[in-house]
Structure formats: structure tokens, C-alpha cells
Amino acid sequence: MTPLPGPPATCADTDPDLPDPLEQLLGDPLDPDNPLSYDAFLAADERGDPLPAGRALLDAYGLGAEFVPRALGGRLRQADELARVLRPLFRRDGSLGLGHGAINLIASAPVWSAGSPEQRRMLADLLLAGGQTAGAYTELASGHDLVASKVRATRQGSGWSLSGRKEVINNVTRAHAVTVLARTGEQPGSRSHSLFLLDMDSVPRDRLRFLPRFRTSGLRAIHLGGVEFDACPLPGSALVGEEGGALESVLRAFQVTKAVLSGATLGSLDTQLRTVTAFATGRRLYGRPVSELPHARAALTGAFTDLLIADCLSTTVCRALHVLPRMTSLYAPAVKYLVPLLTQEAMDRLAVVLGARSFLREGPQGIFQKHLRDLPVGSLAHSGATVCQATIIPQLPRPARRSWFVTPPAPPELFRIDAPLDDLDFRRPEITAAADDGLLAVLPDAAERLRSDPVLGPLCGRLTDSLRSLRDDCLALTPRGASPLAEPWGFELAERYALLAAAAACLGVWQYNRDRQDPFLRDTAWLAAALRRLTVRLGHAPGPEADTEAVFRELTERCERNAGFDLIGRRLA
After folding, report:
1. Could you tell me the domains of the chain?
2. How confident is the model at residue 482 (pLDDT cuts 50, 70, 90)?
3. Given 34, 307, 338, 550, which residue has the most CB atoms within 10 angstroms?
């Protein structure tokens, strides 16, 4: 199979009439004769091993090039484009999307951020040739607390000696290169760890031992293992960036991975919603389709709306990496916190509609239980919900004091789906957010512009009231409260921030994409439904029912014509 050329030189790849290249290659997932069907992925999941046909297809496609910047010969240009490229994989199988796909972004991003020209060239050549990578950041005892990492690297002549074990590492036994976080100093704080890039072909095999595989209830086909180093010698050239600079490099790179993975994993909810919509429109109860029952219709419409909210937020944050990189240390954990939450709750409601069929491991609805098990495991990749909230909390007082209701709204290119951006620069995101929060500045601006709209005006007014309340509460935080050691109500502030960021993203996407051909995206029905759901989550009374009938009609029409449920709604295979 000839590798595909990847995304074109402009953003014309958002044409809804053209399927994604990977979507075309993966084929019809409901075709039993397709070696990449749902049945094939379910069988591989039961065995607990990756589907060989899936890995072969991605190798032939040259997926590794999607993670390599164009300046180094790859196809990586925009973060939002990469999320859309990966989305078809997560529609089929999270194990394939993460274990043979996105893990390469997690492992390589710190090298693109801080690596030497020689390291960047080596890693680019490896990925372009179809090699695999792994990111050995965490340890079982300390989880996502990277500062507590115990693996140690000590100076040995002109090189280093690496000792200790890394556990629950995806793909480590198959990786040709591994990025390893190790302690290189004794001082407390963030300057005691360094990052190393290991060429696994040159590492002495008598100085490392692969640990037994960890089995999981979800993502059964990924290979989570571990590696133990025993005074393993490394050349001086293995150090990525400066000594003691690992946490800065990793935190900067993880802003990219949090945004991209949040957008990519929406493919899983797409499959869940498609499976249940097809069931609900075809199954009859009480003399009519299940989809006409009020509870079922509300669950379907709500899940579709939540998917659109999640896509608005993830797409906006991906684009912020290019447009507002000084703010993405605040935006990225917000999207990584909220998107899994919205997705999990939507899947739980859809499971109620599917009933007992949600437990079946085979047949037309068998794929549902697989994605339902996969999501909680996949959402923990390199940072769970609590870590994301703890990252948000210390950054809130500064924009609350100096930005909200003062800073101008973010520029239109943050929200324009078709607008091309400069190539992603992994070095630009800041470790701590600046004060000028242009995303949340959209809310008071929209409240002023839309105040005469009988539906959107009151909704924007409630959002502005919530922003004002959040500002007051953030300014009241004590020094301890504005830290990861915050009391529980501090974590509630982080959730409120994420919800307001999602509302601002929805408003921006609607405002700046009204020239697109899609009449649904131009209409206010989906926006009103989205803002209503977000205001309810923020504690406001539900208010008048939004025009959910138009949203439900769009859902069923897309299902019938086999189009995606995301913002672009491209035709599927």
C-alpha cells in the first residue's frame, strides 16, 4: 500500500463531502468482510492484543509522519488538524488510536520542544520510517506526580548512568526510542529532573529489564508494561535540553498532547452515539420508535450537543496553541478535564437507552461496551481529572484580577475552522498563563452584542453573571487555596472555569463560522442548546427549553447519511 500524502497545504480538508483519508482506508466498520470492522477490533480486544491489520494499515499510511513537524519532513502542521486525523482511529479502537498512534505524540513532543537539532533529526527519521516511541514519565508509586519520580540518572564521565524502574508505560517493549524522565538533583522543586532520549537499539540489553505487562479492563489491546534500568550507561548526547529542565519541557509539551488527544478521542463518543441512534430509530416500543420516547430523545440530543461542546472547546484550545500560546497552560488542562467528563456522562446516559444491550460483547451493539470500558482508561493518559484541576487552580487569580471584563476578545482566527495557521511551534507555550484571557473575554462581549436576542441574550447574561461570580471567588482565594493543596471548593472553581471556557468556545465558533455552507452550524439552535446545558451545569435554573427538535433532526439526518457528529460533519467511509 502506498503511503498517503497527508493533509493538503490549506485547510480545504474540512470539506464535509470528502471523507478523511484514514476513514476511507479503514472502510465500513459494519461490513463483516472488512478486516478492520468492529467485529475484528472486538475479537482483538477479547484476545488482548492489537489488531495486526490495523497496525499494518497505519504503517502503510505512514502515520508516524503525522507527528513530525513539516520542517523535519513530516506532515504535522496544525494541532486541530492532527486531532481530526486521529479521530477515525478512536472511532474504531482506542487501543489503536493511543497505542499505535497518539503515544508517538506524547513521547516526541518534549523533544520537538527542547531537543537538540541532532535529537530532533534522529526522532524524525525514526517516525518517518515507521518506528515506534514511548514516553517513560510516570512511576506506579507516584502516578502523575512527576516531581516524585525516583528513577535516577547520575553523571558518569561524559555520560550518564540510569537506574530505577518506570511502570505502566504504553508501548515500551515495542519502542525504538524512549523518552525517560529521571531525577538528576537532590534539591527540592522543579529543577531536580532531566529528560533523556534513549535509542533502544544502542542501549546495552544487559542493563535493562522489561517488566511484566499490566492488564486493564479497558483498552485491553494496548501493551502497558515497564522497564527497569540497572546502571544503564547513556551518552551525554541523550540529555534532552538542559540538565534540570525536564519539567518545563514536559509541561510545555503536554499542553499540546492534552489538547490534541481531547479532540481525537471524540471519535469514541461518535461511535457510541451512532450505535445508539441507529438502535433507537429502528427499535419500537409502545407502538413507536424508541427515539420518540421523551427520555431517549433527550439522551440522544444531549449527547450530540455535548459532543459539539467538546469539539468547540478542543478545537479552540488546539488553535490557541498557535494563536494564544501564552494562555494554553490554563486552557489545555481545562479541555483535558472537561471533555472526558462530558463524554463519560453522555456515554452513561446512552447506555440507559441501549439497556441490556449495552453489556453485549458481540453483535450490532457489541462495540458500545468496548468504548464504554476504554474511555476511563484512555482519559487517564498522562494526566487525570484531579491533576488537570490542580493545574488550573493556581493560575486563576491572575486573569481574575487583571483580565476578565478588561481584556479584548480573542481574535477570529482562534475560532475559524477553515483558517490556516502558522506551523505549530512546540517551544511557544508558556509554563504559567499570562493575564490576558482572550477566550473568556468572549463572554461579556457576546452578552453585549446579543442582549436583544430573546434566546441567546438571557443565556449570555447568565454566563456573564457566572464569570463575575467566578472572578469574585478567585480573588478571595488564600495563598493555600490558590495552590494544588486547595480545599475541595477550589477544585469546583476549576470546573466552573472549564465550563465557562467551553461556553466561550461555542460562542466563538458560532460567530466566526457563519459563512460556512453548513446551515446547521450557522443556526442558533445548537448554540442555544449548548449554552443552556452549560448554564445548568453552572448552577442556573434550566430556563425555557431550547430548540432541541432542530438538534435532534440534525442528529438523525447525519446518522442516515453516515456523516460525523462533530463540527465539520464529514462523510464517513
Report:
1. 11-131 (1.10.540.10), 135-244 (2.40.110.10), 249-560 (1.20.140.10)
2. confident
3. 338
